[in-house]
Amino acid sequence: MTPVRRTAGTLVALAALAIGLALPATETANAASLDQKTFTWNRSMTTGDCSIVPGAKWTLYSDGTARLDATAFSADGDDAWLMWARLLDEDRAVLGELRVSGSSSTKFVKNLPVPFRRYRWIAGGRFDPDLFDLVEHMSLSKHC
Asked: How does pLDDT run across 103-135, given as a tens digit for each residue?
């Protein structure tokens, strides 16, 4: 290989490396560019023997994905928290329901097998992204 070709090859490799370092990873870039809305429940929620502690939150993203972060427990054990999440507009009219990621179901389920043990519940959901700008409130239905 001639010195000119070797130098040119080195320059091309260095340029590619510099460009690669300057560009963010696709997932990072996409996540940073998404708008989001977070709804937090500051009071405990109880149904039957099951409870969710204060601070549970749903975060909706403008691409139509959603994320639940909650902590749940049961006083009895061998229970399951069942939840349905509805998206509401400014007048609290129902726009739609969240669906479990990878499913057509609208029922989110967290098994609570051991009494009084707290379980962190991270769940993914999805909704029609065209609704994102209209969502002003959320409501939850629950069963244990």
From this structure: 999 999 999 999 999 999 999 999 999 999 999
Other beta carbons less than 10 A from residue 100's beta carbon: 15
**pTM (two decimals):** 0.77
Residue 21's H or E segment, with its range, is helix 3-22
Q: How far apart are CA 4 and CA 7, in angstroms?
A: 5
Give the DSSP letter string of 94-108.
Answer: EEEE-EETTSS---E
Hey, what amino acid is at 19?
I
98 contacts 87 by C-beta, under 8 angstroms: yes
Burial category of 91 from C-beta neighbours within 10 Å (exposed 0-12, middle 13-18, buried 19 and up): exposed
- Entry field: residues in the chain: 144
Take residue 13 and report the two structure tokens written for it. 């490799």
Please compute Rg for the chain using Cα positions. 23
Q: At 134, which amino acid appears?
A: L
Summarize pLDDT for 53-105 with one digit per residue, the tens: 999 999 999 999 999 999 999 999 899 999 999 999 999 999 999 999 999 99
